[in-house]
Write a structure and sequence with these properties.
The chain is an alpha/beta fold. It has helices at residues 3-8, 32-44, 80-96, 114-120, 122-130, 178-183, 198-209, 224-227, 234-243, 270-273, 289-307; strands spanning 10-11, 49-53, 65-66, 71-75, 108-113, 135-141, 189-194, 214-220, 249-253, 256-261. Helix 7 (198-209) links the parallel strand 7 and strand 8 (214-220). Helix 2 packs across helix 7 and helix 3 (80-96) packs parallel to helix 5 (122-130). The structure holds thiamine diphosphate, iron/sulfur cluster (SF4) and magnesium ion. Magnesium ion (MG) is lined by residues 113-115, 142, 144-146, 153. Thiamine diphosphate (TPP) binds next to strand 5 and helix 4.
């Protein structure tokens, strides 16, 4: 725990009356994942129970300090949705026995990174959706195992340099389509979001609040540390992810997939790529035309398929 964090964090036993998430946290400046969590917490409110698997956000609650006024349960990396099942079941039993009032009932929110959501925790998530668990899952997707030094994950995009894909062409694989995998389970709700589009994010959170069952959010999380850029560019990079069509904003509800923001005139993907050190090798020491064109073509093919554009 840094000195800065101890100045702003609170002992769990004497929390203040207003929540202070994000003030003086031990997170990196410009963390896109934290921003999405901030919005979710603002809308859902203080009594939310978070269930977290190991990752950057774990550092938010290091006993006895926490910025949350509700609950925080830390689980093994593959098990956050199973932990959420336990919390939900316990609250349901207490409600049934009238030891918890309806007003005291709380949303159970799984918060994990992409390493857990796209990989290690996939099985537990699938099981929780099958059981129609009444929970929200926020995956903040910084496209790598950030907390342990940005090793590649199943969410890493093609050509990105990570600490385990350092070759001349970066990561050779392609980002897994978690949205479709989740939607294939027919849950109550799935959406992609990004903190740099706060209105779209807030609308989706408000919508899922009125639903029950598994409700899943994947937030692309610009990460200055793992993606190698100046923290002040986080919002710009987030907006460019949407404007270039790299990160389609969409939702699945009632069996339908709807795009919630259609980039009218998509910007070239290189505007997004060239701001990030992890893609520097596409531009220096000389331009990799084929590499950039391949990334552009995959984006074009996606939008052609879903929107004929
Ligand atoms: C089973 C297991 N393997 C490895 C680790 C070490 N570990 C802790 S955090 C982390 C990275 C998690 O990546 P992600 O879920 O994407 O979250 P991020 O760190 O990017 O926030 C890893 C590998 C662990 N805690 N448990
Ligand atoms: S490494 Fe990335 S995801 Fe982790 S706290 Fe820093 S900016 Fe956020
Ligand atoms: Mg990650």
């Amino acid at each position: 725990m840094t000195k800065q964090a101890t100045l702003h964090f609170h002992r769990m036993k004497d929390l203040p009356s207003t929540h202070l998430l994000g003030t003086g946290t031990p997170m990196c400046a410009g963390c896109g994942g934290l921003e999405a969590l901030h919005t979710l917490y603002d809308i859902l409110g203080d009594k939310t129970v978070f269930v977290n698997a190991a990752g950057c956000m774990t550092l938010l609650s290091v006993y006895p300090f926490t910025p949350f006024r509700g609950g925080w349960l830390y689980t093994a990396m593959a098990s956050a949705p199973a932990g959420a099942q336990g919390v939900r079941d316990a609250m349901d039993i207490l409600l049934e026995r009238k030891k918890l009032t309806a007003e005291e009932d709380a949303e159970v929110v799984v918060i994990t990174g992409d390493g857990a959501a796209y990989g290690m925790g996939m099985s537990a998530t699938s099981g929780a959706i099958d059981r129609n668990l009444d929970f929200i899952y926020l995956c903040y997707d910084n496209e790598g195992y950030g907390n342990t030094g940005q090793q590649y994950s199943a969410a890493t995009p093609h050509a990105a340099i990570t600490s385990t894909s350092r070759g001349a062409h970066g990561y050779p694989g392609y980002k897994k389509d978690l949205f479709s995998i989740w939607a294939a389970h027919s849950p109550a709700y799935v959406a992609t979001v990004i903190a740099a589009e706060p209105l779209d994010l807030a609308k989706k959170i408000e919508k899922l609040q009125n639903l029950r069952g598994p409700r899943l959010l994947i937030s692309l999380a610009p990460c200055p540390t793992g993606w190698d850029y100046d923290p002040q560019l986080s919002v710009e990079i987030g907006r460019l992810a949407v404007q270039t069509g790299v990160w389609p904003l969409k939702e699945y509800v009632d069996g339908e997939v709807v795009h919630t923001k259609m980039p009218k005139q998509r910007k070239p993907v290189e505007e997004y790529l060239r701001l990030q050190g992890r893609f520097r090798h596409l531009f220096e020491p000389e331009r990799d035309e084929d590499g950039i064109a391949e990334i552009q073509q995959r984006i074009d093919a996606y939008w052609q398929r879903v929107a004929g554009a």
